[in-house]
Amino acid sequence: MIAKLVSGLLAVPAAAVWLSAQPAGAASPRKPVRPPSVPIAAVDPYFSVWSPADCLTDAETCHWTGAEHRLTLMARIDGKPWRFAGASPADVPAMKQTGRTVTPTRSLYTFEAAGVVLSVTFLTPLLLDDLDLLSRPVSYIEVEARSADGAAHDVAVLGAVTGVWAVHSPEQEVTWQTYRTREARPLVGAKIGTTAQPVLERAGDQIRIDWGYLHLAFRDEPGVSLVVTTVEDAVSRFTTAGTLEGVASLAPPRAAEGTAMACSLPMGRVGRRPVSRLIALAYDDLYSVEYFHRKLRPYWRRGGADALSVISEGIEQYPAVRKRCEAFDRELLNDARRAGGDDYADIVALAYRQAIAAHKLVEGPGGKPLLFSKESSSGACMATVDVTYPSCPMFLLFNPELLKALMEPVFQYSESSLWPHDFAPHDVGLYPLANGQAYGGGPDNLAMQMPVEESGNMLIMTAALCDVDGNARYAARHWDELTAWARYLSSKGLDPENQLCTDDFAGHLAHNTNLSIKAILAVACYSKMAAQLGKDDIAREFRAMAEDMARQWKEMAADGGHYRLAFDQPGSWSMKYNLVWDRLLDLNLFDEDITRTELASYPARTNAYGLPLDNRKTYTKGDWMVWTASLHETKAGFQQTIAPLWKFLNESPDRVAFGDWHDTVTGRVTVFRARSVVGGVFIKMMMDESLYGKWSRRAAAK
Questions:
Q1: How far apart are CA 524 and CA 606, in angstroms?
Q2: What single-letter DSSP state applies at residue 283?
Q3: How many Å is the Cα radius of gyration of the chain?
Q4: Is 653 helix (H, G, I), strand (E, B) or coil?
Q5: 8 Å CB contact between 578 and 517
Q6: Cis before residue 89, ω within 30 degrees of 0?
Q7: Which is nearest to 506 in space by CA: 388, 672, 617?
Q8: Are residues 155 and 275 in contact, defined by beta-carbon separation less than 8 angstroms?
């Protein structure tokens, strides 16, 4: 099993509700974190919309790439219109925002105006132990109204999304269709998508999907109305009449930019008793990825499911789903507080949906689930090994089978004739086309490969899975590849040649000590798996290699009161975040004084927004900060190390989804945003076996 925490890592019990009232006697309420950007509908790499402002009415919502994906939400209270999502129309006054909280699965806002309180919930039920729910492409907007002054008020709600949500460029032509279902709980809805429908034809990083259909749907109840029109016409009619009845529908096709699906939902006379209405947004992408020239459907479509039935089911199940998400959020954040304190719980809350939404779950060959990451904002490679490596703690914690679903495409690619090398590949393609390595021009470009990095990553992650499973059957399925990688590392890993590591933005580096740590631990991981499989001679051989390499590492890297960035660079230093696996996997290769010496050297090097990655620049990586902090033997040490990361999230001037690469002096985000690697922050919870075992057992039981 994953290593037990030393007693100093155990935390005090957490409060029952995140960011709620403080314990009796507290001097003042704790300041909640200010999210740099708030997830509104974060579902997958294409269906990913955020609010980049403190108030939901201060800016238009946008795709994670920054392209405007406008969501307009308005309330009409006693005949007067109020805006509560979106910066326009500017001539409609904004309701006063009185609260904002981000939990793992929900973004919660409260507003007040004209004697009415609105509570608005944006919920995406990304529960990793339920693949049906996880893959369902539905995100919810729930609006609840109640009287704040004791009087009854006439209330109606308008919701509108533009056709731009379904295109790469606003000028692309779209078409649409409205529908009413005749099921037990009838729906009203519309879907919109490009006329051309270029399925899986566009690949790359800063792009939006332009195939499939965006759906807006809600329950068919008295007084509801829906129309495809312009936002301006919808707002004008709603402002004067509180309904969209009478608005002429546009005739398709036309440019996406001037088109919107809009609905009006009456709430009637609202008193002290809350009244709620629900809008479902869904994206049916038809096909999600291409896997070695075979188009794969999203996982939810297996067995022939269609979009309308899935949306209908999603709306019908919403009350139960909301309760599950509320319970999950409470439990997870309590566990996070127990493991690392309040700041850590805030970081976990901001990381959770983002990390999952950078993946797509599909039905693979034979009906088995495959999970593909997209390197959002960092090149768009898919199934990238050194992106899976930092994110793997989240999957190991909540559902290890999903880590296998992430790694399987890499194993299959490596075991095919398409991959010619005795080290692991970097990726399997350019999202959404998994047709062979994309990074650096493909497998023939040796200068851009990451042989030590990716081989080490695959061995360590496989060993962690075997620890979770309590056996090495998964390793046995891929033993030839694991053996080749272990032998490569045993000869090349101690003193790596001039090559890239996962921190490739820093450039090539020879004699990288942190990369060497990874290689040494990976060799020991291979030994551990061999022992689990009864291959005792191999286990002894590679364990002896790893122990000898670790002894040499200590001598070669020592530099007085710390250890070097590179063996041949006296006076250099770096974060040794890879050491965390020595403790997690009970490998016990590196002397404890190495970790203590490194940790003791870090405070003097730490800037306002964190510990730099190494001595070359002032930038850092948020995921590696948490890994490094997790090496502390005390909760206080962990909290001290992550406090600047919380400060960065709270103060960075860049209003983008959790940027994992930022400057520790200015707090500015450096390129990376909306990436899956923030799943790495969950590594701290893995170090408490009681927390780790609880979640993984729950997933295994389903």
A1: 32
A2: E
A3: 26
A4: coil
A5: yes
A6: yes
A7: 617
A8: yes
